[in-house]
Amino acid sequence: MPPKSQGPALAPAARLPKLRAAPRGDRVREAILDCAEQLFAERGFYGASIRDITERAELRLAAVNYHFGTKEGLFRDVLLRRANPLNARRLELLEAVASGGPAGSRLRAVTEAFVLPVVELARGSAGFRRYLALVAQVASSRLPVLALVAAHFNHVAERFMAALGRIYPAADEAQRLEAYQLLLGATLYAFSGNQRLESLGKEARRSQEIDALAASVVRFAAAGIEAVLTTARPRSGSSGRRASSSPRRRYPARSRAARSRG
To answer: What pTM, to 2 d.p., does this model score?
Structure first.
């Protein structure tokens, strides 16, 4: 009896390439960045020492000096590690905004280009959520170290303000600056994870419901920006008081005798 067919011969299993582990130096650097991000978010720049960071990372103090040079250098790299992909995504969406059409639709698209990348990157990333808490904390401070990263954010701000200017060309530079500042402030606060909603004792909305918050931030910011950019500003030198339509009435000077009696 002929042997039963065993089916088509199977090809030998393909030999998969071995995954190479990240070099030790890269792993150490990432461990320091992760622990620094956590501690800076919890305690602030001055409240977290290099020793605190290296102890949490279970590394020697010299590791920070080797990879980052100084505490300021470490802080700068903590911010830029998350800021670079965030900025890139914002600019990608901003580039896709239509050059024509209703001003309201274009404004909403610009606002979404700024807000939605925050949500995209924060989903499923505890590290990015810590970064948002850190940025919200330091944005309102006057830390000298912020000057080290300003250039990495300023070019993005300029692009968004230019986009607003194209939508509302009658708006002046001060209005565009105010609009961007308010958009930035609303976004930072809404996604800071500061538990302010929870502290109100209500159940309707939670700080971690970032998708719902994002939709509200977009609506809120777009409406506010439109109001800022389309409201006529007082002329330079105006005190803000309404000018009288009639000349100021002058009264004759009273005599010294009359003043003494009065």
So the answer is: 0.74
